[in-house]
Amino acid sequence: MISFWPETASTLAQRIDVIFAGLLALSGTILLLVLCLLIGFSVRYRRGSAAPRGPMPEVMSREFEIGWTSATLFLFVFLFWWATSVEIKAFLPPKDAIEVQVVAKQWMWKTLHSNGAREINELHVPIGVPVRLALRSQDVIHSFFVPAFRLKQDVVPGQLHETWFQATKLGVFHLLCAEYCGTDHSRMRGKIVVMTPEDYAAWLAAQPEGDDLAKEGAALFVERGCSGCHAPSAKVHAPSLAGLYGRTVALSDGRIVTADEAYLRDSILQPKKDVVAGYEPIMPSFAGRLSEGEIQSLVAYIRSLAHSPEDRS
């Protein structure tokens, strides 16, 4: 069976398809209008016809140009607003979204659920529930692409990227890399498995138990020596991490930033980029000393301290 329209399986896909259909209809209308005018003028002003060929009145010409230009400008602004409003929604995941960590590497997708369940080239999600993806690359530029969801997010090494989706159809859907990333780029593929909430809960419970990200991060926090500076009992003058995540932070250069995941990541890899006011830039960089998975764990641990009265390291 030949399908003239790709499968639609997410809320984002529905909105994207409406925009695509609207642009297709508009383009078809303009093409039909131009074609009709072309044929009409060709017949009316053919050689030997008695149609008048004098110059167009100046007033009519000016009004026509102003009207056509204004209509085109209004249409462009409307289309820009319409498409942008959909794109902006794709960057704002709901607060109740399930969080999944995704690491791209040559040539696979590694996914990690909040309870520690791990998958390679697969991602199981419940239908009708928003899923927030925190994406990182371990080596080169990749692109997380799910055609049925109309979801495509480039993943640049050294940066944290976020996107989200909400599946609307049960089934298995292709997960691809849409950015050439090396020799086996074409083999970097996986699948998104959309399940009922009950089946998803059963699947999640059946996965091998593993330490969750926060617990792994707590162990790394001590193992890598972070507790020697950031613990309450530390003699080194370093910022406290208890309750840090989500707070606003005053920097030494006068800027005010929010301690989100991107800020925490930069503080680990580029500690001299955003120095907290009142502290010396003495923290060493951990770039090249921590894997993407370890960075994820440390960030998760710091997030777990967001509502803690004291540092639990």
Automatic annotation (TrEMBL):
InterPro entries: CcO_II (IPR045187), CcO_II-like_C (IPR002429), Copper_CuA (IPR001505), Cupredoxin (IPR008972), Cyt_c-like_dom (IPR009056), Cyt_c-like_dom_sf (IPR036909), Cyt_C_IC (IPR008168), Cyt_c_oxidase_su2 (IPR014222). SUPFAM superfamilies: Cupredoxins (SSF49503), Cytochrome c (SSF46626), Cytochrome c oxidase subunit II-like, transmembrane region (SSF81464). Residues 212-306 form the Cytochrome c domain. GO terms for biological process: ATP synthesis coupled electron transport. NCBIfam families: CoxB. Belongs to the cytochrome c oxidase subunit 2 family. This is cytochrome-c oxidase.
